[in-house]
Amino acid sequence: MIKHHILPLLSNLTRSYKGPISRTRVLTVFTSMSATVVPDSSQVPDSSRSAFVPAGWTTTLIYPNAVINMLKSSTGFTASIELAEIKGSRYIFLSGKIYYMWNTVNEQGWSIVNVTSRDELYRNMAAGGAGLDLQPLPEFGDDLEE
Q: What angle do CA 114, 84, 86 make, to 5 degrees?
């Protein structure tokens, strides 16, 4: 099964390799391919929007509408996704003129009160996010329970 489906796909990846292809070699090739964070394609170094996506985050989502719907049902805000954590559970999104962070694991959110632009957000996140002033969001729907 592996030889018929995966090995033909690997021919381009292993073209320079001059040895037998085995199951071990296939796993090595796949495990050495890791996700990388690259500058957003709409941003070039000499443009006015020169911020690069911070390491560990991405702007590309496989199912962005599902994430937007999840954020809407979790927070009540209409979201424009700015960043998604690659190996984590956090999303940073913009609603109106305010940036927010949402953690899907513990279902908690924060407004980011000291960031007003994408460049500023990216710089803060590239520095580890320590400079962010986060204010906890009230739990969505709390006002309905009485």
A: 125
